[in-house]
Structure formats: structure tokens, C-alpha cells
Write a structure and sequence with these properties.
Length: 628
């Protein structure tokens, strides 16, 4: 049996670039402008340390479209290259072999933006161009160079008459990429990738109004001149020190990031660290609805002011991906696979730092102006509650600022809540029972009954509340949560004293038999309870455990044994000390007895929002008829 090694011919390197990077073909412009920016910033550094005896001036990068000639020009005023440097950096590295290219590329994802990572940024031009020219003049006193390549290993390199410092790259756009000769397409790419590049980028011109002269006539018409159209902001807010920015500056930058967003953010967090990694950025807390169907991917990730992605999963803690803003770091390995990213130590440190910074900011806001923090609670709670469940480090700090509001508009931290409720809401077994409502309107009657007992009821209405209270119960001994409609109040917070039933055991058995013959047993379990005679005669409750497990399963509880599809089951709690219970027992006419039970059941359903559709129509019609 013969064996051997297949060698990939160097002639195939350009087709390979097109094939492997095709899904990312638009980033050629980002890469070429990044190179132009690097060349300009390098010149700035060399002039500042005296190694380049030239005037830095006010350089810019210019993008030009020649639609008729099918050419795209990228022009910079950076340090340029000599003939020898073109030979070294453009030719030798590029043609080191397709085999080496493939070896470097094999573990990366197709959409990972691999080009710049391997120094192939310039060669991304061949994804859209059939021929590429470089005309470059070094800041050194040497002749300009002119390099031409048509995508094969053959190239030409000769001197050129260019006298101005810098580099011009000319892309002869291929027939399958003519979209990149459209002004709207290039404008869109510049706005997406280069909006905050540190060197001004010019794309065409725009009209600008001249100031109106002081002595202008009444019929003066505004005059306009053509000025360079600079498409970027070279000094965005995140590159500045927090002490140099005002509240208005942060708000204006938010509008710059999200021009179609009309609501202002609630507050911002400025990130600025240079050890043990480099990271800058600004995160904004927008107003959020109390649900998990929130559009993520609103945080923009940059590397040295070059836009990379708005998918920051793995870099920003998951619960904070609901925020908006910018993160910029040269220390994140952007051009590698997702699995590598998740395993990278620097990325984990950055994620932990962001969690800590957000926690510290929230604590600071809470301590500095608690009233203002409370007023914003409903707009931020879903993020914080999700953070408590998904990030252990955030959960550790959350006790300092996470709030628990009551139906009376009070706000407590967990420690404050325990202290406020201990005296009145501790049951006979020594457990502190925290009552809560998920819907104040739907559960109003139950809240009212609890308040009559002097109990406080929290408002916990987020879709993940069942997960949250499960965790809080696990971490706090002798603390339990119960939704206010989970049972009648005397059972939710059981004290030593018990009510004595007016009915004998025989009468209770007779009443239960009567009720079970009329009440649909597939949905309601009849419970007889001795309560205060003034308490509701019929009450529908849903057992806390069953309802909570079902909610957790529906909201992604996982491992809840399919309880999300389990049918709704309720308890019908009948007060044996009510006049209605006595009347039902005393009524001999079966039709009248059925009518009493059905009316009472419908009223109990109504108080829980369970009377709907045909049943509600029938109930309303029946009650109108009784008024005749």
C-alpha cells in the first residue's frame, strides 16, 4: 500500500482566501482601513519620539469610488513603504505558502474575522478584487513604489512618481462584487465598522451652510459650500476619562450609538482598566420590560476603536447582554473560535471585572440616592434578578441593592424585609413566611385579606420569580415564600390558634359529597376549612409547590419532569363557618342547591380571573336575568 503527502500548490492561495472567508467578504474594507489607521498612528508615534523628521500634520484616510473604472481607492497619509518594505511585507509573507495558511486557519470559525489575526488583512482585498495595486511613498527619503497583482503568485514592483507621503490601495472590483461600487453599500460599511476609528475618514463631500452675514438683506438666501464628509468620530466618549465627561456627554454618546432610540438610558457605567488587561467602555441601563423576550446584541465590541461584533456572549456576563453600550479591548482574542474564547483566561477575567464593576455601580447608586434607585427598580429588576440566578459573584453582592417592593409601595432589601416581617409573619414552626403577589389586580381580593391580618405582601411579577425565590429559600434558613392566593391566609401563615368548625364531622362529610358531585373534579379538589365566619365562603387557590414547579418549567427550569405541560389544578377551599355552607346543607331542592354551588364557584373563579369565554357569558346572562 502506497502512502504520501498531498501538497497544496501556492497558486491556490487566493481562491482559498475567497472560499474560506467568503461569508465575511465585506470586512475587507474594515481590514484595509485598519491598516491605513495603523500606518498613520505609527507615523504619529515616530514623529513624537523624533525618529521621523517629517510634519505629522492633520492626516486623514480617504475612500473614493470610481464606478466607471470599477475601482475602489483607500488612501492614507501614514508612514508609507519603501520598495524594500513592499518586497518584505507584501510579497514574502503573502506567498509563504497555502499549506501554512491552512494550518493557521484550520481551527477557526468561518465567521470569526480571522484575517487580521494572521497578518492577512491586506489580502482580504482579493475577496472582492480581481486586481490590486499599491502606490506607496515612505516618510523616508526614498522613491515611491508601485505594486500590482492580479491574484496569482505573479506580481510587478517598480518605482512610481508619487511625491506625497502615504499609501494608496486601488481595488479593481471583480464582476461578482460590483455591489462594493455602490455609494450606499460603502457608506453602510463605513458606518458599521469605522464609525469610531481614531483617524478622520473622508468619504466624498457634503453641503455645509455658510454663516449668515450680520448685514444680510431680508431676502438673503443661505449659501452652501462643499466640505469633506468625515464619517467618523475619532474621539468617542469611552476613550476619555470619566472625570472629563458630563451627564449630557454620556447621553449624547448614547444617542450617537443608537440614533433611533428615543428613550434616554436610566444610568451608565464607565469601564476603564489597564491592569491586568486593557478594557474601556460604557454600558447603559435602558428601560426594560418585565420579560425575558428582550432584544440582546446591543452591546458593541471594538478592538482599538474598530468595530468587531455585537455578539459579546462569553465576554460580557450573559445577564448583562440585555444592556447597551460599547466595550473596547485589545486583549480579547477576537479572531478565534467560540470554544477557544470561552476557555481563554483573559476573557474570564474581563467578564468577572465587568460583573464586579456593575455591582459596585449599583451599590453606589443605591447608597447615594435610594429614592431615585427605587423609582427605577421596575425598569432594571429583570436584569438584576437574572444576574442573581446566573452569576454567583453577582449574587454575592446583590443583597446590598436588590429590592423587594410591597403592594403598598415600600421597598426592602432582603435583610430589611426579614427584620420588618419577623414579628408578624413568623408561623408556629418558626418559619418567616413572605407573602407575594404576581399580579396585583388579579390577586387583589387575596391581598386584601392578607392586609386585614396586618400582613405585608410583596409584588414579585417577573417571569423568573419562581426560580429566584427557590434560590432565596435554599440560601436562607427558615425563610419561605408563598403566593398570596396559594391557600387561605390562616394556612399560609399558620399560628397556634385554630378555628373550630360549626359543622359536625357528619355534616362536613355530607357537604363535601354534595360539592364534589357538582364541582368539576378534574380541575378542582374540594377542601373544607374552618375559618372566620366573615371570610370568603368559597376561595380558589393553587398549591404553591405545584404552581411554582410548573412556572419554573415553563420559563426554562429544566428537569422539571415536563411539568410545564401539566394541566392546571386548583383547590376549592370552602369555609365551613360561612352562612353559605350552612345554606347549601339546609337546601333540600337539588336544583336550588346546584344553583347555589355553581354561583359561588363562578364568583370564586371570577376573583382569580378564571371565569372566561362561554362560562363568563353564561354567568353574566344568569345574573342579569336574576335582576328581572
Amino acid at each position: 500500500m502506497a502512502s504520501g503527502k498531498i501538497n497544496v500548490s501556492v497558486e491556490n492561495i487566493f481562491p482559498l482566501i475567497k472560499k474560506f472567508l467568503y461569508s465575511d467578504h465585506e470586512i475587507f474594507l474594515r481590514e484595509l482601513i485598519s491598516n491605513a489607521t495603523d500606518a498613520t498612528l505609527k507615523l504619529k508615534h515616530l514623529t513624537s519620539i523624533g525618529e521621523a523628521a517629517v510634519e505629522y500634520g492633520n492626516p486623514k484616510i480617504e475612500i473614493k469610488i470610481d464606478k466607471e473604472g470599477k475601482k475602489l481607492h483607500i488612501i492614507d497619509q501614514g508612514l508609507g513603504m519603501t520598495m524594500g518594505e513592499v518586497e518584505k511585507y507584501i510579497n514574502q509573507i503573502a506567498f509563504s505558502g497555502a499549506e501554512e495558511f491552512l494550518e493557521k486557519y484550520k481551527d477557526t470559525a468561518k465567521d470569526s474575522g480571522v484575517i487580521g489575526h494572521f497578518g492577512l488583512g491586506f489580502y482580504s482585498a482579493f475577496m472582492v478584487a480581481s486586481k490590486v495595486e499599491i502606490i506607496t511613498k515612505s516618510f523616508k527619503d526614498e522613491p515611491a513604489a508601485h505594486w500590482i497583482c492580479d491574484g496569482s503568485p505573479e506580481f510587478s514592483l517598480e518605482s512610481h512618481s508619487k511625491t506625497e507621503r502615504g499609501t494608496e490601495i486601488i481595488l479593481h472590483i471583480a464582476d461578482d462584487s460590483l455591489e462594493f461600487l455602490e455609494e450606499s453599500k460603502i457608506s453602510g460599511l463605513l458606518n458599521k465598522y469605522n464609525k469610531f476609528m481614531p483617524i478622520p475618514i473622508q468619504f466624498g463631500t457634503k453641503k455645509e451652510a455658510l454663516p449668515k452675514p450680520e448685514n444680510a438683506a431680508d431676502d438673503y438666501k443661505t449659501e452652501y459650500i462643499d466640505v469633506d464628509n468625515i464619517i467618523n468620530n475619532p474621539n468617542p466618549a469611552w476613550t476619555k476619562q470619566p472625570s472629563d465627561l458630563t451627564t449630557e456627554d454620556y447621553t449624547n454618546f448614547y444617542r450617537e450609538l443608537y440614533p433611533t432610540q428615543f428613550e434616554e438610558p436610566l444610568f451608565n457605567i464607565h469601564l476603564n482598566v489597564d491592569y491586568p488587561f486593557n478594557l474601556t467602555g460604557i454600558l447603559y441601563f435602558p428601560k426594560l420590560a418585565a420579560d425575558l423576550q428582550i432584544q440582546k446584541d446591543k452591546i458593541q465590541l471594538y478592538q482599538n476603536q474598530v468595530f468587531v461584533t455585537d455578539n459579546v456572549e462569553g465576554i460580557v456576563p450573559e445577564f448583562l447582554t440585555m444592556l447597551k453600550g460599547v466595550i473596547d479591548s485589545p486583549d480579547i482574542p477576537l479572531n478565534v473560535s467560540r470554544s477557544y474564547l470561552q476557555a481563554d483566561g483573559n476573557v474570564k477575567k474581563i467578564s468577572n471585572y465587568i460583573t464586579r464593576k456593575v455591582s459596585d455601580k449599583l451599590k453606589s447608586l443605591f447608597n447615594e440616592n435610594r429614592e431615585d434607585f427605587e423609582s427605577k427598580w421596575n425598569d432594571i429588576k429583570i436584569v438584576l434578578e437574572y444576574g442573581m440566578l446566573s452569576e454567583a459573584k453577582f449574587y454575592e453582592k446583590a443583597g446590598d441593592f436588590v429590592l423587594y417592593p410591597t403592594t403598598d409601595g415600600k421597598f426592602y432589601t432582603l435583610a430589611e424585609l426579614k427584620e420588618a416581617l419577623a414579628a408578624n409573619q413568623t408561623d408556629k414552626d418558626g418559619k418567616l413566611v413572605v407573602l407575594y403577589a404576581s399580579n396585583q389586580d388579579a390577586q387583589h381580593s387575596y391581598i386584601d385579606i392578607a392586609k386585614e391580618k396586618g400582613y405585608q405582601v410583596l409584588v414579585l411579577d417577573s417571569p423568573i420569580v419562581s426560580h429566584l425565590i427557590q434560590k432565596l429559600e435554599a440560601d436562607n434558613e427558615n425563610l419561605t415564600f408563598a403566593r398570596v392566593d396559594a391557600d387561605h391566609i390562616d394556612k399560609l401563615i399558620a399560628k397556634e390558634e385554630t378555628q373550630i368548625s360549626k359543622l359536625s364531622e357528619e355534616e362536613k362529610e355530607q357537604l363535601k359529597t354534595t360539592l364534589e358531585a357538582i364541582v368539576p373534579k378534574e380541575k378542582y379538589a374540594v377542601q373544607l376549612e374552618a375559618m372566620d365566619s366573615n371570610a370568603a365562603p368559597f376561595m380558589i387557590t393553587q398549591p404553591e409547590f405545584m404552581r411554582r414547579m410548573k412556572e419554573m418549567s415553563q420559563s426554562g427550569g429544566g428537569g422539571m419532569f415536563g411539568m410545564g405541560n401539566f394541566p392546571e389544578m386548583y383547590n376549592l377551599v370552602v369555609n365551613t363557618n360561612s352562612e353559605l355552607a350552612t345554606s347549601i346543607l339546609a337546601t333540600e331542592n337539588q336544583e336550588t342547591k346546584d344553583s347555589l354551588v355553581k354561583q359561588a364557584l363562578d364568583l370564586a373563579k371570577l376573583s382569580q380571573g378564571l371565569l372566561k369565554g362561554e362560562e363568563l357569558t353564561s354567568f353574566v346572562k344568569r345574573n342579569f336575568e336574576s335582576l328581572k
